[in-house]
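[step 3/7] fold_predict: job queued, chain A
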Amino acid sequence: MPELSPIEKSWKERAATAVCISGLYFVSVGVLYLWGYWSSFNINILEYLGLSDVIKSTAYPILSAFVSMIIAVVYGQVVAVMYPIKPESRVGRTLSRILPEPQLLRRHALDFAIIYFFVVFLVFTYLPLTWKWGFGIPLIAFPVAVFLSGKDFVISLVPNSDIRKVILILLAVLPPYSYGLGQLRADEILNSKSYSYLVSAAPVDVVPTQTAPSSRLRLIGHAGDLMFLWEPSDAHTVLMKLEASSPLVFARFNGKQKGSGDTASTKQEKVDTPPLPSDKAPLVK
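[step 4/7] structure written:
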């Protein structure tokens, strides 16, 4: 086998380092998504999942979000290159008046950092959940991307400054976005915005069949042979062990509810997961 040239060795080392770091990174992102979602129900889902389960359960939401962010960031970079802001233009003059000069930033770096973190604290403390993650994610990601952009090991992995800027923005945004996405998905269930509720094949008559969807068991998710349901009336989590062969039937609720009746459209869907036999009661957590 011919000996590799120094350039080939360098690229091989970079590729091995990038694969190792990216594997750890995406597993961590998946854990953040699960943490944001399941912690909203006071469930430590990592007790029920292995590493392969973490990857399988988070691959679709994280991948779809990542692709969307790639398109958005690349589009922003293309627009910035095609239509640069010139200092003499109206926008350039406005930005020059608003933004502080680099010398001023360096001179008062500590003061600006304190103000910045105070703004981040206010955003995450007082804004509603949707606004919190809409404004908070860029506030978290921007300083991380700026901090990493000048590090030697990052420059050695991605020498091109433009490509490095795009990659760092994406990688800095994805972790807080994943955690926030999990919390937003959980908020849809907890606040009756959008959820799947159990229609039939319940192991016990926890809720009568004539009850409105807003009072029925809501699907949280499953891990292995356990299915997690949310009991909205007293905020309990119901664990159902899956053993039999008949499917559970869920209906999808989308939209806000008014009173005891539900005005939004529902769509039934069959989930091919076996319910707990009727002679076994669910575990209530």
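[step 5/7] annotate
Residues 166 and 219 are 37 Å apart (CA to CA).
The chain has two domains: 6-190, 194-284.
exit 0
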